[in-house]
């Protein structure tokens, strides 16, 4: 169920329906966490960060990216760690 909710949230995000996406994320997160689906929790955190970035909420996005990175690391997903770290580093880099 959590995976399906995450997929629906991604669709809503692509359609810029962020409130609806967040509602699905709020449903998916506890289900994924309770089921031990660490990679899904990481995906949820990454998607929430993407929504926050789209809305200009950089501080919140940074927090979600750090969570995503940590969860990807816990799941030994090197690609996920690299993606989340790259986005986090870009976000934290001083504007040139």
For the termini, the CA-CA separation is 43 Å
CATH topology: Serine Threonine Protein Phosphatase 5, Tetratricopeptide repeat
Mean pLDDT: 94
Largest sheet composition:
none
How would you portray this structure in words?
The protein has 96 residues and is an all-alpha fold. It contains five helices and no strands. The protein has one domain (2-92): Serine Threonine Protein Phosphatase 5, Tetratricopeptide repeat, CATH 1.25.40. Helices cover 83% and strands 0% of the residues. The protein is globular.
Question: How would you describe this structure in keywords?
Answer:
mainly alpha, 5 helices, Serine Threonine Protein Phosphatase 5, Tetratricopeptide repeat, 0% strand, 83% helix, 96 residues
How would you concisely characterize the structure shown here?
This protein has 96 residues and is mainly alpha-helical. 83% of the residues lie in helices and 0% in strands.
Task: Provide the fold topology.
Elements lengths: L1 H13 L3 H18 L2 H17 L3 H17 L3 H15 L4
Helix pairs in contact: 1-2, 1-3, 2-3, 3-4, 4-5
